[in-house]
Amino acid sequence: MTAFKYFKEDWTPVIDDYLAKHLASEVDNQKISQIMAYSVMAGGKRLRPLLFLATLNTLGRKIDEPEIRIACGIELIHTYSLIHDDLPAMDNDDYRRGKLTSHKKWGEAEAILAGDALLPLGIQWIAEGSQSAQLVNIITQAVGPNGMVGGQYLDIDSTNNASVAGDAKFINQMEWLKTGCLIQASVEMAAVYAKASDIEQVKLIDFAKAFGRSYQIYDDLVDVVETSEKAGKATHKDKEEGKNNTLTLLGIDQSRKELKDLIDQAKDNLHGLNGEVLAGFLDLYQKVL
Amino acid sequence: MTAFKYFKEDWTPVIDDYLAKHLASEVDNQKISQIMAYSVMAGGKRLRPLLFLATLNTLGRKIDEPEIRIACGIELIHTYSLIHDDLPAMDNDDYRRGKLTSHKKWGEAEAILAGDALLPLGIQWIAEGSQSAQLVNIITQAVGPNGMVGGQYLDIDSTNNASVAGDAKFINQMEWLKTGCLIQASVEMAAVYAKASDIEQVKLIDFAKAFGRSYQIYDDLVDVVETSEKAGKATHKDKEEGKNNTLTLLGIDQSRKELKDLIDQAKDNLHGLNGEVLAGFLDLYQKVL
Description:
The structure is a homodimer of 289-residue chains.
Chain A: H1 3-26, H2 30-40, H3 47-58, H4 65-86, E1 95-96, E2 99-100, H5 102-106, H6 108-127, H7 132-143, H8 148-158, H9 168-193, H10 198-225, H11 228-231, H12 237-240, H13 246-269, H14 276-280
Antiparallel strand pairs in A: 1-2
């Protein structure tokens, strides 16, 4: 088993337990708590919290409850973004990870509010650790109008807009904002938290940039390479709905090539760091290559 | 003119200018910036930022650009809550302050995202000042599942639920969470920011609790006392829609009496503080008494 797999098998249950326990104990209203937990505990890969923890590991920082809390705060924020993206007014998805989406299960107002509750709770968990001001600055920028929400806006604004279909610069920017920003923030917060040296910070952020970009291409490829059943959500949906992404821009073969180039780049960026666990995240892509 | 009116006339244009200028300069995408600014610049009274600044004034703290930025961060967050409350799945309001609501003007996805953008941007502005960790803790708790969003959830969950119509405890809690929490946070953040003594903090928080509670009663009373035109939004709407609030619980006369009692309480809480400006906020209620 690779160092990454050991790491993942060690920490995924710790993350899952922490999320389940603290959503139950820290949210006063049992119904809201249940609606929030339904989506948070829906079987996500915990990619972003694991990235945060793996970056701490790379920097030789011990992982304890305060670090788990920050990692889980990132997952709460990621889950909020999924719930809102699935809403009828947005991507209008009925299923995610093989389960009904929040608004299909609980109602639309409930889903909007579950997202609205997860975002500040996630920021609160992140803000309670050391380096609070810097971490809050990184996370709020990553998910705000110049980050994730900005990307989602470009997405809805450009859906069925033929004029951006061939615009690689626009598509790159949209995908970076939608997905890359929060991935980079997960690594960057760990670098700041563990007080990485300047040279370590540069390497880690470059790694995060390549990984974040590659992850969106991977996510688009999964959509066509896997069947709907395996991916746990409606696949082949982007093209039907007039979505523009790297895949619709480049096609499958060229997307795979770009993904391979980004994997090489990301590995290069880890040179000179104790980056065995972080490099293992790139193995995730094997199934679409 | 009262000290409060001077204070309000001094600082309201400063708040308005700061909001307009920084939404334009700090949000990269011009369209999102415009959608966010449409609601932020829709003629709100700036009650919460003025409360933050007036509390600083009470504590003898100088007001400069860093303090204005925090005050405006609170207003961004308040505006996010209004945009989401007005959505079709929530209160389904077409007008607010005499203008089309965000989703009527720009579309539903755009309104959801404008709210989703204003919340982290507001927290970012608040987090950039001194006492960052404490202020972020106060604001995220105030607007999270145990605060404002929790109140909004109780509201939608209890609409047309006859069993809570006479439940004073439930209605008090719902109204406190929906409105009181963010008002209290505005005062509490100023107290922490200006390093108020323990005794000053207790007095200010008690004032904020009485003021926050009274403000919701006032807001419900405006709904029936003023005409739709004057209030700038649909009035008499709560009763028609099966909403439960202090007014539907107590009726107009008893609500007015409770409001008067709270005004007296709030004034008492300011005893021994340089609270002339803060006390002036209570004059706002004259028009419904």
